[in-house]
Design brief:
Shape: elongated
Strand content: under 5%
Number of strands: 6
Number of helices: 19
Radius of gyration: 30 Å
Amino acid sequence: MDKMWAGRFQESLNKTADDFNSSIRFDKRMYAQDIRGSMAHAAMLGAQGIISQEDASVIIDALDGILSDLTSGKLPFDEASEDIHMFVEAELTKRIGDVGKKLHTARSRNDQVALDIRLYLRDETNEIIALIKELMAAIVRRAKEYAAAIMPGYTHLQRAQPITFGHHLMAYAMMLQRDVTRMEDALRRMNYSPLGSCALAGTTYDTDRMAVAKALGFDGITLNSLDGVSDRDFCVELLSAYAVLMMHLSRFSEEIILWASWEFKFVELSDAFSTGSSIMPQKKNPDMAELARGKTGRVYGDLMAMLTVLKGLPLAYNKDMQEDKEAIFDAIDTVKQCLAVFAPMIDTMTVLTANMRRAASNGFINATDCADYLVKKGLPFRSAYKITGTIVAECIARHTTLEDLPLEAYKAHSDLFDSDLYPEISLEACVEKRISEGGTGAQSVQKQIEFIESFLAGSDR
């Protein structure tokens, strides 16, 4: 196949160089966006009288047919094409002859690909947002179910204070809510059409860039043609947002892996989301969570690859920018794959509340409440802290707990202790007394659930 740009050249492109230069094998996934952009461009050319309305209609109808045939699989991609843009244009010309050659009037592949990738990322990121919301909904369902299930909260992976499993789960819902808004913010900044910037300097034709932008659902147009073709900030922003999302999924995965171990045994994952060992018949491995944790590094790598490609590029377009696609395509595929498995994994896991409650009963996680008891009776917090620490040491020596230590032993440390201490340091009381906004108390967790439900319903906007 002759190259569209072959007029200036006297020799054919070396076969190895041609393969190296070609991007059809990965940018063909943008075929729908490429054709949508071309249809809007053709309509504008006709409306502006740059080509005839009749030619514009013929081009649009033929492009619609190509889109239908590609979507159905009737038309295979020609892997010998240089890229998706050249493939579509060649197929268009094959179908309608010289009229098809008019489509590329007043545009360049530089602004064409800049348009395609914006359209593609907008479509894919909206799909990712929908998947995140599905996961958030799954978390809310389980948080409601276990809003009162007491478990140990941890700092430094040491038992710290009693919380509820519902409260713990809602922490991840809050992270995911930020991920959604972070992506939405990036989409708003990205939603400007570069088409009409042409190669770098604009065009001599009387185009209507705003009409094309509106037809494609953009909020406006890029205001500098050099920036229009060379900007990939939106790729970096979205990759950064994907990387933060994966970091959140990785943290959640790590906790699920811990909780599913025999050492914790707070949850048991469904067989449908676990695997076994080839040699140890007793094993039930949390491989889906481990894979999500592992794939996080892959998305981090995609972000670093994009930043590195862009860091030394002069304006405007450079072939280096072809490397933007494989990185961001890989990140999108990875994120969607992880999200697709995560929500049902959460929905189907068994929560072992008795084990959580048993773990919470050990580790003196009500020690802060014991100190607060003394503070409420007038003792400065630091003094109360020291006395409680001494009592904890005594409990350890006696192999007992704060709840089981006799009142006489408490009184040996302070006369402020009385029998009303024991209700104050019960785990249930410790949880319910956390009345501050955002805390683990039942009312607070309910407010958190309502906030996320409102967000998912769209009424918080």
